[in-house]
Design a protein that fits this description.
This protein is α/β, with parallel strands linked by helices. It has 13 helices and six strands.
Length: 344
């Protein structure tokens, strides 16, 4: 798919938005990062009075061929499907936080190694029953990869028509930190050892084993394009997120980026169109050791650092109220002039 993602270049709005922010009854810069967020959302929406409409999080679930061996993941592959049922039963952290902050939550079967009943309250977009083991062959075919990108984009397009302008993406997939580490190494040119972390709970020697395995995987393959790298190392959930990010940027939506795995999908999207970053707000720094290096590579600062590394989009849900406060002060706080307060 081709995406028409335009950089944000409205110089007149840039000046007027800055003036509006600086004219509020506060010292210039006194609201810190809230001012930066208000400015960015205003620029994204091309208005001095932005609003957040029908905030939505999609959680994409998919399985990974390498996880069947259990060498890089402490939890068995079956946990992916079990967690999807937990999402359906509203028992996961992301369910709790979305309910708390009135965020719409959609669960997508992108490629779980399990047959879900069609009547379940999830979106059925399964590409296959998990990817191939990239120790032996590429994770997916180019056709499968492009299909996943398209499906992610289509889901965003449908949500946009329901008056949604603020969106984020989470994931669930045992083994997906390995895919994210490989993609990180490919796009940042950092060695695998700097990209691999604890994942769902590996420690010490197990992390070294994971590093060695993934180093061998990286040497085995030589993709020559962003899509090639995604097809070789990625997961169906990561590919769908990449497509979803690209479509959301094309539609000029505010995109809230979660942690390590979602940022690996963003690296793919960014390599296709660098302008995608204009539309992204980074929720938090994950406790996964490679995430901060990803953010450094993209030259972006996260809103929060709470030591979270759960995934599911939980960082997005926790950060969303900060965006609400940013828009609220911009729209409702008095100016020096309207309040009759001296500005100097």
């Amino acid at each position: 798919m081709n995406f028409d993602i335009q950089p944000i270049l409205n110089k007149n709005l840039k000046s007027s938005l800055r003036t509006k922010i600086d004219s509020k009854t506060k010292p210039i810069g006194a609201l810190g990062v809230l001012e930066e967020i208000a400015f960015q959302i205003g620029m994204i929406q091309n208005t001095e009075s932005p609003k957040l409409s029908n905030a939505t999080i999609f959680v994409f679930a998919g399985d990974h061929g390498i996880a069947k061996k259990g060498e890089v993941n402490p939890y068995p592959q079956e946990v992916t499907a079990q967690m999807v049922y937990n999402f359906i039963n509203k028992g996961a952290a992301i369910n709790v936080f979305c309910k708390q902050h009135d965020i719409t939550l959609n669960i997508v079967d992108a490629g779980v190694n399990h047959s879900f009943e069609t009547t379940l309250d999830i979106i059925h977009e399964k590409i296959d029953f998990g990817t191939q083991n990239y120790q032996e062959k590429p994770a997916m075919t180019t056709e499968q990869c492009n299909t996943a990108i398209r499906k992610g984009a289509e889901l965003v397009g449908k949500t946009y028509t329901n008056d949604c302008n603020t969106i984020g993406f989470g994931e669930m997939g045992i083994g997906n930190t390995s895919s994210a580490s490989l993609l990180m190494s490919y796009f940042t040119n950092l060695p695998i050892a700097e990209c691999v972390g604890a994942g769902t709970g590996l420690v010490d020697e197990a992390i070294k084993v994971k590093q060695n395995i993934l180093s061998e995987v990286f040497k085995k393959h030589s993709p020559t394009s962003p899509i090639g790298a995604l097809a070789t190392f990625g997961g169906f959930e990561i590919a769908m997120i990449a497509g979803a990010i690209l479509k959301a940027a094309e539609l000029k939506m505010t995109i809230i980026i979660d942690g390590f795995i979602v940022t690996s999908a963003l690296l793919v999207a960014h390599s296709i169109s660098s302008s995608v970053l204009d539309y992204c707000i980074f929720a938090h720094t994950s406790g996964e050791q490679g995430h901060q290096k990803m953010l450094n590579f993209l030259d972006k600062k996260p809103l929060l650092n709470l030591g979270m590394r759960l995934g599911e989009g939980t960082g997005i849900a926790i950060a969303y109220p900060v965006l609400e406060s940013s828009v609220a002060f911009l729209n409702s706080m008095a100016s020096f002039e309207s309040a009759g307060v001296s500005s100097n």
